[in-house]
Each structure stands twice: as structure tokens, then as C-alpha cells.
Write a structure and sequence with these properties.
Shape: globular
Strand content: 5-15%
Radius of gyration: 23 Å
Structural class: alpha/beta
CATH topology of the largest domain: Rossmann fold
CATH superfamily of the largest domain: Class I glutamine amidotransferase (GATase) domain
Number of helices: 15
Length: about 325
């Protein structure tokens, strides 16, 4: 029988970690039961595995007792890395070095690996993501980029699938990844069955709709901070990046390089993200129409506004307004 390993890491977990472990285990168990009913055999043995025989989370509020320790697993087909607690990540990495060495060894011997949400930090620290694309929770995107510059982060993507490595976006979107893996490891029919049982949208592809853009000012470049503030305080203007660099007496190319280094975005991308975030809030909380909001955030061309809005959020302005402001649609 083939094998799926759901890891139970130590020292970096919270309730989301527990939820992703339990959720993955439950969906794979249901897929196994469905497969057995139709094919008269179980396809995979699904086991929780750790370094030790029990792992405590949330100050021992929850204790998980894995069925097996990783040292006794000689071969597995798929490894699931659950989400982790970012603020204790560096300390926990040392405690889980054996786990990461095991993941790397298994991958090199044919296993595939999937990380859930912030579990991408553990996966990236193993080096297996270098030169590959990856997703994680949008809220951790800047921290991730700074820590792992050799990884191609696709923060808007819900799921990435490359060279036997799978990653997914934030929080409970891990359910979409598990359904995706059920289709890969079982078949489409089993995936559809599980999506119906657990009521998970089988065709969801992006997490852009849920992203909340923050100011990205956790850096020491005072000139770039002033430029960011200028962009944020002049939303209604169509700001020329050339003029902006002149305003702060920095050559255009050098300005771009400094801006990217400090924020992870080009000045144009940053300006677009700030404007679209303001537009999103207006659509969520007011009854203003698309044109009113568009002019407020410095766009005069409807086509251009719609294209940038959809690029950032994955939805058109009207679709976003309809989804997040029911009152606006009633009136």
C-alpha cells in the first residue's frame, strides 16, 4: 500500500497548525473510504508522523500523538507540512532540523511534498524551493521574500505545483490544496466527492480577493518611506514615477532599485496596490459607483482601472462590489 505522511512539527504550532493537520487527515481518510467502497481496496495509508511520540500545542491545550515517528518511515509517497507559527519560526527551525533533513531525503528518493500556508517557511528552509515557485499566506509575503530571495513567491496563487512540490496560500484555503491532491493521488471522481462532502470549492485558483495590502514600511530607507507616504497621501493624483524620483532627488533607476529593495514592489506596483486597496475599501463600505471610486483613486480611464483592479484582486470592480457590499447592490 502507498503512503501519505502528515507531519506534526514541534515548537512552532498554534490552532491553525492543528486545524491543517486534522483537516488534511480527515479529507484523505474520506477519500480512502470512498476509494475502498468503489475499488474494494484502500489506496493509501495515511499517518501522522513526528520526531517524538507526542507533540503539545497552545501551551499543552492540545496534544497530538502521531501514529509513527519519521525515523521509522523508510519510504513515503507524499509529505504534508502543516502551517506554522511564524514568530517562533527561527527557534523552531533548529528543533525541527531532523524533520527537514528527513523531508529532503524523502524528496530526493521520490516522495512529493506539499506545504500548507506558512508551512512554506519550513519547506523553503530545506532548500527544496530554491529556483521554484511557491505560495504562502499573503500576510507573510514580504517576510518570506526577505528570508528566501531564491524562491519565486507567487503570493496571488492559491496553489503551486512544480517538480513534485505543492504549496498553497493562506489559512483555511489549505482545504483547496487537499482536494487538489486528492484528485492527483486518487482521481477526479474522488476529488469531486470530497469537495461535496466537505463543501470546498474545487475550482478556486486565487487568494488575491482576500489579500489586504499593508504599507510595507518595515525597512530603514527614510527616502523611500517618504516616497511611500507621498503616494498614500495623494491617491487622487496620477503620479509620475519620474517626477517622484526627481522630487526626492534620486536618479530614476537608482530610485526603482531602492524602492524594490525596501518594499518588494516597484514604485508603480506600490502605487497601484495602494490605490486599489483604497478602492476596495470604498466598494466595501460606501454606495459609490465604479466611476466615482475610480476618480477618487486617481484613475480617469475605466479600462485601465478595471484591468489593474482585476490584476490585483482577481475580480472586476463590479464583481468585488457585488460580493462585499450587499447594501450597495440593494440600493
Amino acid at each position: 500500500m502507498k503512503h501519505i505522511t502528515i507531519l506534526v512539527p514541534e515548537g512552532q504550532g498554534n490552532l491553525s497548525t492543528v486545524a491543517s493537520i486534522v483537516g488534511a487527515s480527515e479529507i484523505f481518510s474520506e477519500a480512502n473510504a470512498y476509494w475502498k467502497k468503489n475499488e474494494n481496496k484502500e489506496l493509501y495509508k495515511v499517518e501522522l508522523a513526528a520526531i517524538s511520540q507526542k507533540v503539545n500545542y497552545c501551551e499543552s491545550l492540545i496534544t497530538i500523538r502521531p501514529q509513527i515517528t519519521v525515523s521509522t518511515i523508510t519510504k513515503t509517497n507524499l509529505i504534508i507540512i502543516p502551517s506554522s507559527l511564524i514568530r517562533s519560526y527561527k527557534k523552531a527551525t533548529k528543533r525541527n532540523q531532523l524533520l527537514m533533513d528527513w523531508i529532503e531525503h524523502q524528496y530526493k528518493h521520490g516522495a512529493e511534498v506539499a506545504s500548507i500556508c506558512s508551512g512554506a517557511f519550513m519547506l523553503a528552509s530545506s532548500g527544496l524551493l530554491n529556483g521554484k515557485s511557491c505560495s504562502t499566506h499573503w500576510a507573510y509575503a514580504n517576510v518570506f521574500r526577505n528570508m528566501f530571495p531564491e524562491v519565486d513567491l507567487k503570493e496571488q496563487k492559491l496553489i503551486t505545483d512544480e517538480h513534485g512540490i505543492y504549496t498553497n496560500g493562506g489559512a483555511y484555503s489549505f482545504l483547496n490544496l487537499i482536494i487538489y491532491l486528492v484528485e492527483k493521488y486518487y482521481d477526479r471522481q474522488t476529488a469531486i466527492y470530497c469537495s461535496k462532502i466537505f463543501q470546498v470549492d474545487i475550482n478556486r485558483e486565487t487568494q488575491s480577493t482576500f489579500a489586504i495590502f499593508s504599507a510595507q514600511k518595515n525597512h530603514d530607507d527614510d527616502v523611500i518611506k517618504k516616497a511611500q507616504s507621498y503616494i498614500e497621501n495623494n491617491l487622487h493624483e496620477k503620479i509620475s514615477i519620474e517626477d517622484l524620483s526627481l522630487k526626492f532627488a534620486v536618479g530614476r533607476r537608482h530610485f526603482d532599485r531602492r524602492f524594490i529593495k525596501a518594499t518588494g514592489n516597484t514604485p508603480l506596483e506600490y502605487s497601484q496596490r495602494v490605490k486599489i486597496e483604497s478602492a476596495k475599501k470604498a466598494f466595501e463600505s460606501t454606495r459609490k459607483n465604479v466611476n466615482e471610486v475610480m476618480y477618487e483613486v486617481g484613475y480617469s480611464d475605466t479600462k485601465s482601472f478595471r484591468e489593474v483592479f482585476k490584476k490585483v484582486t482577481g475580480m472586476s470592480p463590479l464583481e468585488y462590489r457585488s460580493k462585499y457590499n450587499k447594501e450597495a447592490m440593494v440600493h
